[in-house]
Amino acid sequence: MYWVVCFLVAAGFARAATEIRLPAKWADTQSYGSLVCHADSSLDDIEPLLQELDQLSAEIQETLETVSQPGTIDLYVFRTRQAYQDYLEHYFPGVPYRRALFITAHGQRMVFVQRGPELETDLRHECTHAILQPATIAMPLWLDEGLACYFEVPPADRGTDPRGAKVRQLVNKGEVKSLAELERCVDLAQMGGDEYRFAWAWVHFLLHDSFTARAELLQFVAAVHNGTATPPLSQRLARAVPRIQELFSAHFAAWADRRSQ
Ligand SMILES: [Zn+2]
Fold it and tell me: Which of the chain's termini has less CB crowding within 10 Å, N or C?
């Protein structure tokens, strides 16, 4: 089972930004729009991937009808797991090891990844957190992770995400995690494989199943983004979308027939 975890590091958890001293010289540094990439090896071989990431921000803003904050996102790409781990242990002691990380501290948005077969997925997942960061300060944990999981897959592959088949199996067994259950997750330690899977599933359902469900999600994201008081999304949806649990189950019961949406 694989899942990606990110940390939103509160001030004081990481060392102060002024203490963060990057290596005197990275092997390669490239900028792609608001993304500033630093690497301990040449970035040439992943340039198409990095160019695609520059488009991710526009895609997220268009999908959620929201606006990202100005400023840059610093991306650090390490050639090996050891180099990645050594760097994080030195500059962010106390942060548990995860394969990829988004860290924000003192206004800096930083994404750390290591090269490997999951590089593309990790880049898209953690950069989604970074792009959404101003909104995620008050965004429910499940939604923050659900959106990151949703956008970690390129648009053309979202209708055939393998998580869909797994969710369909769970739905058929009656093992559905409701939105209210996910909303009770307030700590990453509460987010296991099923929580990530259903966080993704609810985001996919809300974005694709009906105009009304999508509108409720977008209005909720806008309220969070603007700091406007709002009831939990589960309560909003219970009023706006009758029989939502049935619709959610039907959405995934039909998953095998989906190719792309
Ligand atoms: Zn995450």
Answer: N
User: Distance from the CA of 242 to the center of ligand 1, in angstroms?
Assistant: 30
Residue 5 CA, ligand 1 centroid: distance in Å: 4
Output the CA 110–ligand 1 centroid distance in Å: 13
CA of 134 to the centre of ligand 1 (A): 15
Per-residue DSSP letter, 161: -
Euclidean distance between CA atoms 132 and 147, whole angstroms: 9
For residue 125, report the distance from its CA to the centre of ligand 1, in Å.
6
Residue 168 · residue 112 · CB < 8 Å: no
Give the rounded distance of the alpha carbon of 105 from its chain centre: 18
How far is the centre of ligand 1, averaged over its atoms, from the C-alpha of 6 (Å)?
A: 4
DSSP 41: S
- Dist. CA 244 → ligand 1 center (Å): 26
> Longest C-alpha distance within the chain, in Å?
58
147 C-alpha to center of ligand 1: Å? 9
- 107: phi then psi, degrees, rounded to nearest 5: 85, -10
Kindly report the average pLDDT of the chain as a whole number. 86
138-183: per-residue pLDDT in tens? Answer: 789 999 999 999 999 988 888 788 899 999 999 999 999 999 999 9
pTM: 0.88
As separate numbers, helices (DSSP H) first and strands (DSSP E) second, the chain gives 10, 5
Given a cut of 80, whether residue 67 has pLDDT beyond it is no
Centre of ligand 1 to C-alpha 188, Å, is: 9
